[in-house]
Amino acid sequence: KTDKEGVTPEGKVVLDWISSKQNKHLIPAFGIAKSHFQEDYASAMRFRKSVGLDENWITTKITALNNPSIFFSPHNMRKDSPNPSTISHNIMKTQSHNHARTHSSKMKDLAEDKPSILVEESPELTLKIGNTRVTFTSSHTHLTQLYTKYASELMEVRENMHKWADRVNLHAGIGDIEAEVLYLRIRELKPERVAELGFGQGMCTSWILHALDRNAKGKLFTFDLLDEHNRKKDMDPKLTRRWVLTLGDARSTLPTAGDFDYIHSDAEHSVDFAQWLMNTYMETHTQPDQMSFHDVFVKAGNLKTDKEGVTPEGRVVLDWIAAKQQSGGFRSIPFFTVAKSHFASEYATIALHRTLIGLDENWITTKNTALNNPSVFFSPNKGHGKG
Is the pTM of this model over 0.70? Predict the structure, then answer.
């Protein structure tokens, strides 16, 4: 028997006791209950895996995964300590983000073999990458809401994408989760005009066209030097009525194509092009409401990165965001990513939520591509109301 917040009567007694003590003292308390603390649970699962523990559960799977206990330290009472977020039965329903973020981030750093670039732990995380300081906005709450809102259609779109990818023998390109995030952002924004820089083999193009088709509005303008892989003929004719492919150097074709509500870039992997896009085009044209840039955070692979796992073109993008945040405040340019290599906790939360709403891990791209998700997502034009 539980109350409406999923707490047993005896559990409420314990939480009330902890809460009353926390009014005067610091009593560390935490839980990894999957039902109430999904982010901490997901981080613990990742950490178990990183140290070689398997999922050959001793108890039944449903028992093994619930973990309804709470853990606390009654003798760790210090009157001079700051009062933490209370863990009363009301707080448990809407998990204290600051507390959970600190706990999960520490576990993430232990579990991931990566440079430490986290310098502040809060809902907004300030990253120091070389001389660049950019504020990352924790996104999992908003994204899980979008995943839940569009869950049923996302399953249908994934099934259609699978069939198309198998038919044209395409299992490379944008990773599954970041493609889903791109899809969800376009579904929610409902843009009239979307620009895609870089056609490649058409995987990302197809995801965007599916989103526009579901919106029943909008048009995608794709720019690339050439159709290198001869993929135009493979695109789904049911979707291409909302698509225009323009071949040629985007530095010449994009500026004359009009304004866009959303821009996604996965084009030439060069500092020159990134500098032109961010420091020339973005400064001389109406900025889009939302934007995303592929291949920024990369842990391993064929792309060149610095010691912190950031590509040279990715650093150009982060520098641009950092400069805008410095002049207008970090909330002026909301920025987030689900890159597994650098933000394992954010990634784990989204991966767990996908499972909870019924999305499987039958990846459309190869597993390595599907799990990396190196894109960054940001809102250059937030001040105009749509970011």
Answer: no
Task: Name 166's Cβ contacts closer than 8 Å, sequence gap at least 6.
Answer: none
Report the chain's mean pLDDT, rounded to a whole number: 79
Q: Which residues pair with 196 in a beta bridge?
A: 222, 264
**283 vs 156: CA distance, rounded Å:** 39
Helix, strand, coil proportions of the chain in percent (round to 5)?
45, 15, 40
232 burial level (CB within 10 Å; 0-12, 13-18, 19+): middle
Contact 196, 264 (CB under 8 A): yes
Instruction: Classify 105 as helix, strand or coil.
Output: helix
- Tokens 């970011």 found at: 387
d(CA 66, CA 64): 6
Distance from C-alpha of 66 to C-alpha of 35, rounded to nearest angstrom: 7
For the record, the structure tokens of 230 come out as 């001869």
**Residue 328, both tokens:** 């207008």
Give the closest residue to 364 by CA, choosing from 153, 148, 146, 170.
170
CA dihedral 222, 227, 232, 234 (to 10 degrees): -130
Using the Cα atoms of residue 120, residue 371, residue 161 and residue 296 in order, give the sign of their dihedral: positive
Question: pLDDT for 310-339, tens place per residue?
Answer: 999 999 999 999 888 888 765 668 888 888
Whole-number Å distance between alpha carbons of 182 and 294 = 11
* Residue 314 contacts residue 341 (beta carbons within 8 Å): no
Pair of tokens at residue 209: 């066209």
Are 142 and 151 spatial neighbours (Cβ–Cβ below 8 Å)?
Answer: no
DSSP 283-314: HHSPPPSEEEESSSB-SSSSS---TTSB-HHH
What the block records as the tokens of 255 is: 């500026």
Residue found under tokens 């709403």 = 357
List per-block mean pLDDT (blocks of 10 residues) for the chain, which spans 387 residues: 86 85 70 81 76 82 80 63 34 31 35 31 54 66 88 95 92 90 96 96 96 98 93 94 96 96 93 96 94 86 75 93 80 81 84 87 82 87 49
The residues, ordered by sequence, that sit 6+ positions from 303 with a Cβ below 8 Å of its Cβ are 269, 295, 311
Instruction: For tokens 């950031």, name the residue.
Output: 310
Q: What is the pLDDT of residues 259-315, one digit of tens each?
A: 999 999 999 889 999 999 999 999 999 999 999 999 998 865 556 778 888 999 999
